[in-house]
DNA sequence: CGACGGCTGGCGGTTTTCCGACATCAAGCC
DNA sequence: GGCTTGATGTCGGAAAACCGCCAGCCGTCG
């Protein structure tokens, strides 16, 4: 065990309600760096989210505002500063995710091809699963080449609901 | 490769002359964290030493002063703040090193015994070799149980000279 | 005898390597 | 339609390798 550690990045988090259950919002140095659902795979330990604060503290109000508009079907493109921490490859994948239009879907292979690595579809799946900011970075818009849901950190059922909602199903 | 890295610890270094050749002094956050000789084993890459500054900048003058006194035979115990970064075990070993009196020597096994791990003598040798602050943290005062020099990051010849000097040989 | 040299086996922390597991997909072959 | 194979990046854990050691055992040689 190393005895010196990295305590320089100031993290804080808040928890808000949503149609998909409680969402944990994490901010690093005042910029949104995480959005996690309950029971989500690869969700970091709660201790790593820093101090819990009220959702009224910056930068959370603006995040909550846009999320509410999205869930109301009135917002189709988030406009928020993000702090995405990961490997170069992961960041390149996440950068592509935000280019997938609302209501549309890509396959893992398509996304891999856009990166110039047509064979990296499997690696794309992995990086997708590590997306730290669910919903806002729309990893749910990536599905199997033959239309299968194949997987979702927050559970495939949530993925189905998100896609159906974006497709216009309002039941 | 990770794309976010640790740039929080401000490192700087200076190079000074000595009877044992040039010494590279490294400071982390204004505290001495390294002293390396030329050709030393396990010496980190020079890039990791940060910007090179004049030996007149803090905290180096005090370090140089005490080193000069040591090489003149007038100082037998350094009194400097140190920043020793390593594993728990390594730090426990280095903590013992500074307790070896000037002119004295311990065996690797003796040092291991002081840690309550009488069988860890070999691991002590390893940790000894990783000592980041040569001379001031006197890893040269540890020798084989049967008196052999067995090894030294800066070369066994330097170890022999250091020990002879501390024993009072002034030729 | 005793001192000394060389071999051997076991010791323990750290580093390196390796392997499997995955939110895939196309091609090739039944 | 099914089933196998290979390419891909990351992570976690297992295993092995690396050593600034040391005690015990056995020779050899004065």
From TrEMBL, chains A, B:
The active site is at 139 (nucleophile). One of its GO terms (molecular function) is methylated-DNA-[protein]-cysteine S-methyltransferase activity. It is found in: Cytoplasm. Its EC number is 2.1.1.63. Keywords: Cytoplasm, DNA damage, DNA repair, Methyltransferase, Transferase. The keyword DNA repair applies. Belongs to the MGMT family. GO terms for biological process: methylation. Residues 88-167 form the Methylated-DNA-[protein]-cysteine S-methyltransferase DNA binding domain. NCBIfam families: ogt. PROSITE patterns: MGMT. CDD domains: ATase. Residues 12-84 form the Methylguanine DNA methyltransferase ribonuclease-like domain. This is Methylated-DNA--protein-cysteine methyltransferase. Involved in the cellular defense against the biological effects of O6-methylguanine (O6-MeG) and O4-methylthymine (O4-MeT) in DNA. Repairs the methylated nucleobase in DNA by stoichiometrically transferring the methyl group to a cysteine residue in the enzyme. This is a suicide reaction: the enzyme is irreversibly inactivated. It comes from the Bacteria. It catalyses: a 4-O-methyl-thymidine in DNA + L-cysteinyl-[protein] = a thymidine in DNA + S-methyl-L-cysteinyl-[protein]; a 6-O-methyl-2'-deoxyguanosine in DNA + L-cysteinyl-[protein] = S-methyl-L-cysteinyl-[protein] + a 2'-deoxyguanosine in DNA. This enzyme catalyzes only one turnover and therefore is not strictly catalytic. According to one definition, an enzyme is a biocatalyst that acts repeatedly and over many reaction cycles. Its main location: cytoplasm. Pfam families: DNA_binding_1, Methyltransf_1N.
């Amino acid at each position: 065990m190393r005895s010196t550690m990295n305590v320089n990045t100031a993290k804080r988090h808040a928890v808000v309600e949503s149609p998909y259950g409680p969402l944990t919002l994490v901010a690093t140095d005042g910029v949104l760096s995480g959005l996690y659902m309950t029971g989500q795979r690869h969700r970091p330990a709660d201790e790593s989210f820093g101090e819990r604060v009220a959702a009224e503290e910056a930068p959370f109000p603006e995040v909550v505002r846009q999320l509410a508009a999205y869930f109301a079907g009135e917002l189709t493109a988030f406009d928020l500063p993000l702090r995405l921490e990961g490997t170069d490859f992961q960041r390149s994948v996440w950068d592509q995710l935000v280019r997938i239009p609302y209501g549309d879907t890509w396959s893992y292979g398509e996304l891999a091809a856009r990166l110039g690595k047509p064979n990296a579809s499997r690696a794309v799946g992995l990086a997708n699963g590590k997306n730290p900011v669910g919903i806002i970075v729309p990893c749910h818009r990536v599905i199997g080449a033959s239309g299968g849901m194949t997987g979702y950190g927050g559970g495939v059922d949530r993925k189905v609901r998100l896609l159906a909602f974006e497709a216009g199903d309002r039941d």
